[in-house]
Amino acid sequence: MKKLIIFDLDGTLLNTIADLAQSTNHALQALGYPVHPETAYNLMVGNGINKLFERALPEGEKSEENVLRVRREFIPYYDLHNADKSRPYPGITELLEQLQEKGMMLAVASNKYQTATEKLIAHYFPHIRFTAVFGQREGVNVKPDPTVVYDILLIAGTDRREVLYVGDSGVDMQTAANAGITACGVTWGFRPRTELEAFRPEHIVDGADEIAEIAMRE
């Protein structure tokens, strides 16, 4: 049985794409840039919000200065609206409760900025006692850099062989590989199954209940 399960947030625990799209489009529109359909954001998210803004800006406008301008418009709006339409994926709340009841430690490793990560976890999973909740922090490289995983392992006091990392993207599969821990890709998130398969994770699942089976048998 695994002792620690680390989850990505966006596209893994929560479907946040509608609120991310709405907030980014709000920021783009405020600055006079064209907006994008919600579905386009599936391939823009996953590497932190600065990379999201760079991808959302038009060709020829992707400067660091413009990224920061979008960020200034985005954050106040998203802080107010990040739970408008976001919801846990089917079976996720029950999965977390089940793993917690079995005595496993749970943690979050996200590329979403820290305050929003903490807010969403507290809002949607108030009864879950997470060992660590880490988003994008100042001075810490974003995933697939494994630093966030190492920080969680230090707090949890667990060996890498006792850990399962769950995420929906190639970035997540890379993060697990870079940290030397077992990876589990989920197919209900923002990225296609083929992206997960390209990184050859140990597991790919189609339902939350499968994660519990994996965590308990290994």
List the helices and strands and how they pair.
Blueprint lengths: L3 E4 L6 E2 L1 H14 L18 H8 L7 H18 L5 E2 L3 H10 L3 E9 H11 L7 E5 L10 H10 L6 E5 L2 H10 L2 E5 L6 H6 L4 E3 L2 H10 L1
Description of the structure:
The protein has helices spanning 17-30, 49-56, 64-81, 92-101, 114-124, 147-156, 170-179, 193-198, 208-217; strands at 4-7, 14-15, 87-88, 105-113, 132-136, 163-167, 182-186, 203-205. The chain is an alpha/beta fold and 218 residues long. The protein has 2 domains: 4-15 and 86-217, Rossmann fold (3-Layer(aba) Sandwich), CATH 3.40.50; 17-81, DNA polymerase, domain 1 (Orthogonal Bundle), CATH 1.10.150. It has a 6-stranded parallel beta sheet, with helices on both faces. Helix 2 packs across helix 3.
Instruction: Give the helix proportion (percent range).
Output: 40-55%
From the alpha-carbon coordinates, what is the Rg to the nearest angstrom?
17 Å
Major β-sheet, in short?
6 strands, parallel
Number of helices: 9
Name the overall outline: globular
Q: What's the pLDDT, averaged over the residues?
A: 97
CATH architecture of the largest domain: 3-Layer(aba) Sandwich
Keywords:
single chain, 218 residues, alpha/beta, Rossmann fold, DNA polymerase, domain 1, 6-stranded parallel sheet, two-stranded antiparallel ribbon
Concise summary:
By secondary structure, the protein is of the alpha/beta class. The chain is built from nine helices and eight strands.
